[in-house]
Write a structure and sequence with these properties.
heterotrimer; A mainly alpha; B mainly alpha; C mainly alpha; B: mainly alpha; two-stranded antiparallel sheet; 26 helices; 2 strands; C: mainly alpha
């Protein structure tokens, strides 16, 4: 059972590897991720969810770097390095963000961004 | 950059800063600090003066201020020449003596450091005005001395009279300053420079009408700052300030800034000596000299007498300017600085001794109790009245004979009459204060000689009031003339006075003194002026009803005009425009504020909208 | 190894290295001492900044790290302005946090943030720019929330963080597009594409350019990317707000200057008219909304938006004149804001924590020196001579006029007029209103406020005020100080 599943997976991978999808199809995937992130950012009220949405957008950007690197100038590694940097910085950002959320949660017992209404006008 | 010159004004600046920021921790000694610093400044001025004798000190730039056009930069530039150095020595010297006097005079004050900070800062402004090499810088410090004068008149700001006197001085000076600014703009329009010497070099290119216009505008500034008709009424009110301030600012230095300014720009004034502007200047000067002297006859407040006398003497100087005799004007400026500072300081000493009583009718017989002070005051009055061989005699005589030689007999006659009045009111002031009987209801026991710290400056000034006149003797070729001629080019006076004319020039002072003695020295109690002159005397007491005339002719119509301006111009047009503009902006602002609800999603949405808008802009407009 | 060192020309980054080194030292010291024993971490930080400032005198101008960074006189001056401002802010930090914890952390974070400024102004490669902007922003997010007991501070941190992360994401997306359009991430493609007679850039290039520029405009608070400014300035601790007013602006302006065509030097009209609009909108909206403010920090936040709008005019000027005017403006602007926020820092504890303008009533009587200092800053912000704000506006507007953009210069002048209304109202409140009842016990002597505040913030305030005055009286001298 497991054996057959693995062999099927291998087959799929082989098919994907042999076919060469165009840059556009990759870009559509990354744009879709970006849009999902944007939508989440604008609609989610939970700060953690908003942060996750931002992470999606960052990742789609990193994805884009790799795509453009691969298709436009495969001889260089600029985009790939940038992707690695993005992963690292995104991690740092999550740490800072979560720290802020925790500090806020201690005080408000909620991380609903609509409850953040002390500063206005 | 000449260090002596720099330190001349840098030291008082340091003094002002020290007293201003740290003074509260050494209140009692703040006057000593300021006085010591002024001594240093005076020494620097003297060193610069003698250095300049040996080899002329070039002008130098302190720093570049800001570029006005591509070709011209407004600089802080120091102009060192004979004229500015003479003025600097006078300002620092008299300033130093007055600082010393003020140490004694202000010793009961709660916060003397504020006073000395202002006083030092005034000296800085005055020195930089004198050293200005361009009109912008001169205007800045012209305003600077005005500001310090305002602050010092209102030094006792809790007294409503002092506060309103300060305001009056400030507002009346603004009228004159308008003329100054317009003249500066007008000159810049033609020459694209503010530099005084450059303007002097190019000034011949100007047509006569323009020169007349500019000189009249400049003279408007002079009438404000140097208290000429019709803008002089602020000066008597300015006597609300502490007496050392009256001596320094409203007698010796600031009010003479107008005279200095005209002398500094003499190239402009020399150009068309017979144009209407000169007639205006001469007439205003002569009238001021006469009117102010007449008013001084009727005053009982000792400081008011001196204030009107200052106005009158400034009128003499302006007369000299009107006939193009700048050196004579500066000569009178210098001697006047000595004897008027002396008079104010002795008056201050009397007021100090009398515990702030200024009414002369409540004094009398003080000569017995304060003999040195009395001697100083008498010397000052002799110089003021133009008693032969005192300082005032030489300088006033120089002006009057110059006016006559330039063939202006009416102005000359007005000057003579003013000189008679001068002799009379000075004698009157001396007699009422120091001779006769004690007239106050309080016992005079507490009155004693002035403390030594205040007496020393008086004695030095008294020597100057006696001797300073010899600097300008013989007339037209004396030391001062030779010295200033290098800088100030004025047309030579032609001809000589006949003996009778000469007598007529020196006699009025003596006549005035004799009249004064005749009326006041006879009786035990002084006759009021009204009794002496009948109804005319009443005019003098009432200041020729000038305040009332002003009230009727100027203030009331101005008020109506101002009301009209206020409702039509200010309320309807300016405020209307500004307020509607404000209302539009505020309305828009309050609407926009609603967008700033503080919601995170609103912030993000506006961000996104901005990005979309930029994209749309590019797509719509192309690139 | 040595050849690598030579080729990388690592010296160009020496000031940043010194700053980062000192930041790490401060963190180490803080980790091994108790909070109460931490011996003035600010002094260590200020020493580091001073060393960095001095070292920037000696480092050569040039390109380093294989073309990733370039130091020229403009970037060096911009960075030294930020360093000097940072030193002043660190002087104020002790008064803000007192004996509280967090002083070591704050000092280290300020240093890291300044390091980010250095990266951004010298960056020649988008990786450097990205690292710089993150290094600048992450400490700022934390510092915004540094006033732990105040819910406003935490809220400000949250808002700043989320909006900032969103801006980063957009910027990264733009950078990816830029990579797609140009094939690499070197920033000189901007300059090449905007050259006169260059091949017109493609639409995809413009897409990347807009997204990256947007992040910079966000950092400097241009309308409509400005909303975070208000909440963050208001909620953050006042001394940190002082830092926020200038450090991100300096970095963003000079990063933007590298990717935006200056004036008409490119043949393209769209970037010019776009900047025209942005500048006009920013200054007008900032001023209009400041009119209605009752809260002093929020009012200053709007004012800083408006000043950002004035400064954006510098991009309408071709050649170096605009950039120089911008440098001068930023330096004076940093000093004015440090001065104003320092006074607010010092006054706040004894007054209304909401910091409404009315709470400054009678400040001239209770804290004379502080009131004078604040008044000087406000006069300068209005643009009155003889203070630096006048000179800054004068140089900028003069250059704008010389470049032929009359209308925007007029708009700036009218906006300055309008701004007098809300700045001078604060002065009016300070001088004419009676002190509030709560302060009347402070009415011991006019100098009471002067002696009861910390020495270091007193010095910082004095330096800022002297700077504001000197820059107005002798701009040449001031320019020589800041431009090394």
């Amino acid at each position: 059972m497991i054996q057959s599943f693995l062999s099927a997976f291998n087959n799929i991978c082989a098919v994907v590897a042999q076919s060469t999808p165009s840059m556009n199809s990759w870009l559509i995937v990354s744009s879709a991720i970006f849009s999902i992130g944007l939508y989440g950012l604008l609609t989610r009220r939970n700060a953690v969810a908003v942060l996750m949405a931002v992470e999606l957008m960052l990742n789609s950007a990193a994805f884009n770097f790799v795509i453009f690197n691969h298709y436009c100038k495969p001889s260089t590694v600029d985009g790939q390095i940038m992707a690695i940097f993005i992963i690292a910085v995104a991690a740092a950002e999550v740490v800072v963000g979560m720290a802020i959320f925790v500090a806020l949660f201690r005080y408000k017992k909620t991380v609903d961004v609509n409850e953040m209404n002390l500063l206005k006008g | 950059m000449n260090l002596a010159v720099v330190f001349t004004f840098l030291l008082p600046l340091c003094g002002a800063l020290i007293n201003g920021f740290l003074g509260q921790w050494f209140r009692k000694d703040s006057g000593t600090v300021a006085g010591t610093i002024m001594f240093g400044s005076f020494m620097c001025a003297l060193i610069a003066f003698f250095q300049n004798q040996a080899s002329p000190i070039p002008s130098f730039t302190l720093w570049h201020w800001f570029p006005i056009s591509d070709t011209y930069t407004a600089d802080m530039r120091i102009l060192v020449d004979h004229l500015s150095l003479t003025m600097a020595v006078m300002v620092t010297g008299v300033g130093f003596l007055i600082h010393v006097f003020a140490v004694g005079y202000m010793d009961h004050e709660a916060a003397p450091e504020r006073f000395f900070c202002y006083l030092n800062f005034f000296v800085v402004n005055m020195l930089l005005l004198v050293f200005s090499d361009n009109l912008v810088m001169m205007f800045v410090f012209w305003e600077g001395v005005g500001l310090m004068s305002y602050l010092l008149i209102g030094f006792w700001y809790y007294k409503p009279e002092a506060a309103s006197a300060g305001k009056k001085a400030f507002v009346m000076n603004r009228v004159g300053d308008t003329g100054f600014v317009l003249a500066i703009f007008w000159l810049f329009y033609y020459f694209h420079t503010f530099n005084i010497l450059e303007i002097a070099g190019k000034v011949k290119e100007l047509p006569e009408s323009v020169v007349t216009g500019i000189t009249l505008l400049l003279f408007l500034a002079v009438t404000g700052k140097s208290a000429q008709l019709p803008l002089f009424t602020w000066l008597p009110d300015a006597m609300e300030g502490p007496t050392p301030v009256s001596a320094l600012i409203h007698a010796a230095t600031m009010v003479t800034a107008g005279i200095y300014m005209v002398t500094r720009n003499h190239a402009l004034f020399n150009l068309y000596p017979n144009d209407p502007a000169h007639m205006v200047i001469l007439t205003v000067g002569a009238l001021t000299a006469l009117v102010a002297a007449a008013i001084a006859l009727g005053q009982n407040d000792i400081k008011k007498v001196l204030a009107y006398s200052t106005v009158s003497q400034l009128g003499f100087m302006v007369m000299a300017l009107g006939v193009g005799c700048y050196i004579q004007a500066v000569f009178h400026l210098l001697t006047h600085a000595c004897f008027k500072a002396l008079l104010f300081l002795t008056a201050g000493a009397v007021i100090y001794g009398m515990h702030h009583e200024q009414d002369m009718t409540k004094m009398g017989g003080l000569a017995k109790r304060m003999p040195m002070t009395a001697a100083c005051f008498i010397i000052g009055c002799l110089a003021l009245a133009g008693f032969p061989l005192t300082a005032g005699y030489f300088s006033k005589d120089a002006i009057l004979s110059a006016v006559l030689l330039k063939d202006h007999p009416y102005a000359w006659a007005a000057g003579l009459l003013a000189a008679v009045f001068t002799g009379f009111y000075s004698t009157r002031a001396v007699w009422l204060t120091f001779f006769g009987e004690w007239r106050s209801s309080h016992a005079p026991d507490h009155i004693h000689e002035t403390p030594r710290v205040m007496l020393m400056p008086l004695m030095i000034l008294a020597v100057l009031a006696l001797g300073a006149g010899f600097a300008g003797w013989p007339e037209g070729s004396g030391m001062l003339y030779k010295y200033l001629e290098v800088t100030v080019k004025q047309p030579e006076l032609k001809g000589h006075l006949s003996m009778a004319n000469w007598l007529a020039t020196i006699l009025p002072g003596l006549i005035g003194i004799a009249l004064g003695l005749f009326f006041y020295a006879r009786g035990k109690s002084p006759a009021p002026v009204v009794a002496l002159f009948g109804p005319i005397g009443n005019w003098f007491v009432q200041k020729l009803y000038l305040d009332e005339i002003y009230e009727f002719l100027i203030v009331e119509p101005t008020k109506i005009f101002a009301q009209a301006c206020y409702y039509i111009g200010d309320k309807a047009m300016i405020d209307g425009f500004l307020h509607s503009w404000y209302n539009v902006c505020a309305f828009g602002g309050s609407r926009m504020r609603r967008l700033h609800s503080g919601h995170l999603h609103a912030t993000l949405a506006s961000f996104l909208a901005g990005v979309v808008a930029l994209f749309a802009y590019i797509l719509v407009r192309g690139y | 190894m040595s050849s690598w060192l030579q080729a990388s020309n690592w010296l160009v980054m020496l000031p940043e290295m010194i700053i980062a080194f000192f930041a790490l030292i401060i963190l180490l010291v803080a980790a091994f001492t108790k909070d109460s024993e931490a011996p003035y971490p600010e002094s260590l930080a200020i020493t580091g900044l001073a060393l960095a400032f001095i070292s920037s005198y000696y480092i050569p101008e040039g390109v380093g790290y294989y073309g990733q960074v370039a130091v020229d006189s403009v970037s060096r001056t911009a960075f030294s302005i930020a360093i000097l401002g940072g030193m002043l802010v660190l002087g104020v930090v002790p008064s803000q946090f007192g004996t509280d914890t967090m002083r070591s952390e704050t000092s280290a974070l300020v240093l890291f943030s300044l390091c980010g400024v250095g990266f951004m102004v010298t960056a020649q490669h988008l990786i450097m720019l990205f690292l710089g902007i993150e290094l600048l922003s992450l400490p700022l997010y934390i510092m915004a929330g540094m006033r732990t007991r105040d819910p406003r501070s935490r809220e400000a941190a949250l808002k700043y963080f989320i909006v900032g992360a969103f801006a980063s994401a957009l910027m990264l997306f733009g950078m990816a597009i830029y990579l797609g359009a140009n094939g690499d991430l070197l920033m000189n493609h901007f300059a090449l594409s905007f050259q006169k007679n260059a091949v017109p850039p493609t639409l995809i290039f413009f897409a990347g350019w807009i997204l990256i520029s947007t992040a910079m405009l966000f950092k400097l608070g241009a309308v409509p990317f400005h909303m975070w400014v208000l909440d963050v300035y208001q909620g953050s601790p006042s001394s940190i707000t002082a830092f926020m007013t200038f450090a991100p602006k300096i970095a963003a302006f000079f990063a933007l200057a590298k990717m935006w065509p200056l004036g008409s030097e490119s043949g393209l009209s769209t970037p010019i008219s776009m900047m025209y609009l942005l500048s006009f909108l920013t200054m007008t909206a900032g001023n209009m909304m400041a009119l209605m403010q009752r809260n002093i920090k929020r009012m200053l936040a709007y004012s800083s938006i408006a000043h950002g709008g004035y400064m954006l005019m510098a991009f309408l000027i071709s050649g170096t004149e605009g950039i120089h005017a911008l440098l001068f403006y930023l330096a004076v602007y940093a000093l004015m804001n440090i001065g104003a926020f320092t006074v607010i820092t010092l006054v706040a504890p004894s007054r209304d924590p909401e910091l409404s303008i009315i709470s400054l009533s009678g400040l001239a009587k209770t804290h004379t020196y502080l009131a004078v200092a604040l008044a000087i800053c406000l006069f300068s912000l209005t643009g009155l001579p003889p203070f630096g704000g006048f000179m800054a506006k004068f140089f900028l507007i003069k250059a704008v006029l010389a470049s032929g953009n009359v209308y925007i210069a007029l708009a700036a002048i009218f906006n300055s007029l309008l701004s007098a209304y809300y700045y001078l109202r604060v002065v009016l409140v300070m001088t004419t209103r009676e002190p509030l009842a709560a302060d009347s016990d402070e009415l011991i002597s006019p100098s009471a406020g002067f002696t009861s505040i910390g020495l270091s913030s007193r010095i910082a305030l004095a330096v800022a005020i002297i700077g504001v005055v000197i820059s107005g009286i002798s701009p040449d001298f001031f320019a020589r100080i800041i431009s090394l």
